[in-house]
Write a sequence for this structure.
């Protein structure tokens, strides 16, 4: 296998375009891709023909407008290239109109009230900045999704809008520093993806995994992750074979899959790609998750992407490494060797700090979901309190600026390892902080709060928009300054002083930080029901409208969609628990109690002690009855939840009433698992699942 030849073979990339498109058409399309110029509609026919010819040669028979509705996954409607002739045969055709615009049924996708059920028309619009690709014999064309009345119904369109506004405001700042070479600024992202691999038969034997993606019952196994022997450990043969095929599949699709390793929890792993322009990175992360599941199935495995598949075991996240780069290759968050003297870097740095402080609510709710609530703050992910880590060196630089003293850098440190044969290592000026929600890591910010199932589009819409809005304020002030350098210094110092409260370099897991954050006035939105309603706060609607990312109607509709999804997920989980409790656990435990009763009777008949049997019978009988009573409580609560018409009220009810009842029911079941014979327990245990591959 020659990787350079394999890479991107299923992607209609710049090389494929240049080989197949007329020179003037390629030049026009490349301007749209590189510079964000409006697409010239007259070239669509030529592009469509070349794209179809390329796809057919690769074995494609169909095409689809591949889009990302508000379901959290991708959507596609396949149409064949065939067109009938008068002779009763067919030819392969694909027009410019079919490339540029599609018309999927919009009535069955979440719209938050924007579309009524009988209003079916919707449109998909080609995104030429993200390359088309072939998947399973179908040409997939990345698109944005709109309603008949023009409202956005997906995550791609607002992501592109947020990128556009960030580009405009960042260029204003660069022009102030005399940079006239850069024509465009791109937000870039590298999204590290965590996941679990389990045996497919184990997955199919658990209704909770099938219906909800996570285990709703399960006692802790004798061994979990406490020995810390799985992290970066040798990769098992079966997993290695999966990873090899996954890499090849992703490389064919143009995804630069780079780093793979075992994660902390048993059966948990991570895959990290090289960073890409944000809308491309978003598309590729969706492809990555889909491909993981497909490849796992071929190996008799199942890929779990849920944030918390196993209670008491580390869950999975997605680390969103975000930065800004120009089309000339300049990373705007690269501090250089002397950050204290790099005015441009300092301005972009404090812009991010200010944006995070002023919009803690948006960042928190951008990662809110029923699944991620189990993970945030659980010593495996940052807490629900948003803060920024900048490291020791930058903290000292900011402190020096704030107090108007000269920063005295410490210079590069060298680590002497004490072994003659080992080289001296240059030490980084700062450590890393894995507990921080929003950490500066050398030349980028790592937003660590995302859950593993998340589309990265949502959080990046927020990051792009809030930073762009701050850059707008900065540009408005500096463009009118008589003395630019003095105004720049004053602005940076004022921003540091006004937003120092968001900076924290310590342990975000500690109870002391929670208390300190409260003293600083930072938000602590503990769960999704508390966080999500803030999306429609007036200040946030004003922010999105001011930057042209969302309209007020689009904001309120998305708030409703997210809250309804939270309630739907928990309803499915509760109903699954009820079914498993009634149909699986309750009868299985009763059967085991019968076994014990028979054994106790026989022992006493022959004069032996049955004390242990009777003690176990009593424990199991009490727990089984307790679980059954709790099932009744949950059923009543679900009926009551239907009476809440407002999604926010329904979500709060689930958080305050239903979830605690579900946890109580689970406690009874997990206690019974420990005391029930393995032959009688109705489904695989944590020990079976986590160590089966």
């Amino acid at each position: 296998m020659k990787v350079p030849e394999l890479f991107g073979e299923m992607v209609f990339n710049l090389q494929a375009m240049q080989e197949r498109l007329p020179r003037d058409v390629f030049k026009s399309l490349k301007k749209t891709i590189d510079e964000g110029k409006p697409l010239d509609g007259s070239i669509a026919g030529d592009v469509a023909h070349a794209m179809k010819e390329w796809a057919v040669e690769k074995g494609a028979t169909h095409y689809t407008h591949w889009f990302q509705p508000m379901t959290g996954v991708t959507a596609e409607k396949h149409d064949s290239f065939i067109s009938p002739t008068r002779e009763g045969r067919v030819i392969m055709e694909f027009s410019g109109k079919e490339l540029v615009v599609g018309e999927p049924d919009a009535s069955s996708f979440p719209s938050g009230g924007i579309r009524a059920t009988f209003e079916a028309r919707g449109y998909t619009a080609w995104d030429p900045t993200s390359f088309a690709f072939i998947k399973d014999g179908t040409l997939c064309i990345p698109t944005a999704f709109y309603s008949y009345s023009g409202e956005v119904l997906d995550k791609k369109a607002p992501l592109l809008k947020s990128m556009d506004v960030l580009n405009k405001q960042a260029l204003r700042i660069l022009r102030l520093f005399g940079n006239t070479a850069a024509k465009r600024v791109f937000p870039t992202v590298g999204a590290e993806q965590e996941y679990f691999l389990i045996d497919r038969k184990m997955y199919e034997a658990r209704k909770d995994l099938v219906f909800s993606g996570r285990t709703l019952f399960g006692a802790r196994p004798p061994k979990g992750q406490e020995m810390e022997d799985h992290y970066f450990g040798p990769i098992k043969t079966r997993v290695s074979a999966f990873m090899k095929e996954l890499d090849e599949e992703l490389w064919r699709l143009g995804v630069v899959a780079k780093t793979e390793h075992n994660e902390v929890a048993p059966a948990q792993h991570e895959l990290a790609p090289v960073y890409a322009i944000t809308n491309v990175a978003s598309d590729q992360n969706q492809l990555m998750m889909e491909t993981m599941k497909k490849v796992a199935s071929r190996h008799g495995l199942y890929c779990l992407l849920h944030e918390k598949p196993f209670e008491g075991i580390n869950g999975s996240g997605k680390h969103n490494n975000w930065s800004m780069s120009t089309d000339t290759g300049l990373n705007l968050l690269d501090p250089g060797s002397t950050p204290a003297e790099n005015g441009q870097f300092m301005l972009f740095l404090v812009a991010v700090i200010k944006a995070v402080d002023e919009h803690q609510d948006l960042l928190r709710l951008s990662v809110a979901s029923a699944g991620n609530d189990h993970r945030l703050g659980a010593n495996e992910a940052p807490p629900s309190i948003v803060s920024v880590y900048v490291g020791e060196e930058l903290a000292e630089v900011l402190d020096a600026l704030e107090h108007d003293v000269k920063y005295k850098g410490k210079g590069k440190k060298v680590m002497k390892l004490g072994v003659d044969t080992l080289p001296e290592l240059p030490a980084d000026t700062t450590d890393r902080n894995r507990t921080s929600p929003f950490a500066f890591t050398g030349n980028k910010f790592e937003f660590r709060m995302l859950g593993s199932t998340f589309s990265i589009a949502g959080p990046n819409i927020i990051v792009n928009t809030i930073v762009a809005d701050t850059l707008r304020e900065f540009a408005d002030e500096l463009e009118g300054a008589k003395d630019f350098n003095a105004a720049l210094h004053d602005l940076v110092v004022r921003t540091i002083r006004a937003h120092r409260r968001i900076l924290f370099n310590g342990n975000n897991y500690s109870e002391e930080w929670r208390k300190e954050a409260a003293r600083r006035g930072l938000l602590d939105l503990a769960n999704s029901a508390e966080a999500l309603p803030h999306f429609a706060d007036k200040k946030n609607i004003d922010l999105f409208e001011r930057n042209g990312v969302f309209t007020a109607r689009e904001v309120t509709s998305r708030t409703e969609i997210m809250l309804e999804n939270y309630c739907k997920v928990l309803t499915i989980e509760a109903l699954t628990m009820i079914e498993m409790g009634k149909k699986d656990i309750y009868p299985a435990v009763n059967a085991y109690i019968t076994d014990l009763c028979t054994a106790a009777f026989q022992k006493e008949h022959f004069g032996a002690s049955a004390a242990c049997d009777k003690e176990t019978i009593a424990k199991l009988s009490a727990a089984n009855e307790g679980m059954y009573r709790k099932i009744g409580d949950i059923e009543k609560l679900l009926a009551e939840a239907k009476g809440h018409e407002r999604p926010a009220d329904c979500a709060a009810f689930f958080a305050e009433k239903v979830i605690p009842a579900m946890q109580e029911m689970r406690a009874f079941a997990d206690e019974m698992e420990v005391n029930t014979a393995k032959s009688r327990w109705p489904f695989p245990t944590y020990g079976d699942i986590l160590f089966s591959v």
